[in-house]
Amino acid sequence: MRVVGIDHIGIVVNDIEQSIIMYKTLFGIEHIRTVTLTEQGTKIAILQGHNLKIELLESANENSKIAKFIKSRGTGMHHLAFQVEHLQEFIRNIGKQDIKIIDGIKKGENMCDIAFIHPKQTENVLIELCQKPR
Question: Does the reported pTM lie above 0.85?
């Protein structure tokens, strides 16, 4: 069980196209791709800079978790993602410390296995755990 590093920062936005332009203009960060995860009701833009990856998250429908997040908290920082080597083993080990995963393991952007730790257990920071495809 090992954390490899920070994989990305997730930021909730109202207008993904405007946000892509802003990050490119201000910071010179390259837009890699935009995908829609229909099952999650989320549109995701991947931005890449030197040693930095950002996921911009926009709601694809009014019932998505992102839409609910915006209604309750507004836009801004959504989550911090840690890349781990063996996600299932990592989850088993943190489960021994009564750390619970929200909604189990899912497929994320780029076919990574992902899981989220509830922010009530991590000082109000939503933590995503992700494992790259092998």
Answer: yes
Whether the per-residue pLDDT at 92 is higher than 80: the answer is yes
CA distance 27 to 68: 29
- The domain made up of 3-131 has a fold known as 2,3-Dihydroxybiphenyl 1,2-Dioxygenase; domain 1 (3.10.180)
- pLDDT reported for residue 134: 77
Residues in the chain: 134
Strands 30-37 and 101-107: unpaired
Alpha carbon of 49 to those of 23, 24, 32, 82: distances in Å?
10, 10, 10, 17
Encode 4-20 in three state secondary structure.
EEEEEEEEECCCHHHHH
Say if residue 6's pLDDT is above 80.
Answer: yes
What is the reported pLDDT for 108? 86
Q: What is the mean pLDDT of the chain?
A: 94
Domain boundaries, the chain: 3-131
Residues 127, 79: contact at Cβ < 8 Å? yes
